[in-house]
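Chapter review: from sequence to fold.
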Amino acid sequence: CESFSKDIGAMKGLLLTILLVSILTTTSVGQNVEQNDYGLDILKQAESLFCKGDTSQTIKTFENYIDKFPNIGTTLLISKRLAELYLATDKSELAISLLTKTMEFKSTIGYFIYKDSCGLYSGLDPATIKADICVTLSKIYSYQGDNLTAIEFLHLADTKYLPNFGGCANGMIMYKTKLSLDFADFY
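The token string follows.
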């Protein structure tokens, strides 16, 4: 019984420590995040605008999201989608600038994304996002005729930003196979 009482006392101390650390972490991390909503209202607004075909307002909404939530992992995902919208509206220099800047991105809060009704957020995968950004930059530079820079970004996707999928060899092989097709386009 005495040993059991000591174990319960130790567990209570551990739980209190975990609770305190959790509260402190939530307070310091959540300073830029209003009520831990991670900008869900802005994401839903962007979805509504995109589904209605209003690309210019979707772009403005995404720019607002990035300004308001600069440290959330979701911002990296939204930056990729915003760059795609820039490309669709012939703003390749804005896309290059944004994507290049996102290569330096380090989030302090994880990713949040939801399945929407018209595909705005589909295909955004946190495990592959930086490699995907490199591939997008490669395609932009290739389109502009700068094949050396295009190949450099493919190389970054294949080495530095190759997703590890938590150690899943199949996922890595599948991604390398996808990249090999992009490399083949240059040769």
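Two observations follow directly from the output. Residues 3-35 have pLDDT under 50 and may be disordered. The CA atoms of residues 56 and 89 lie 9 Å apart.
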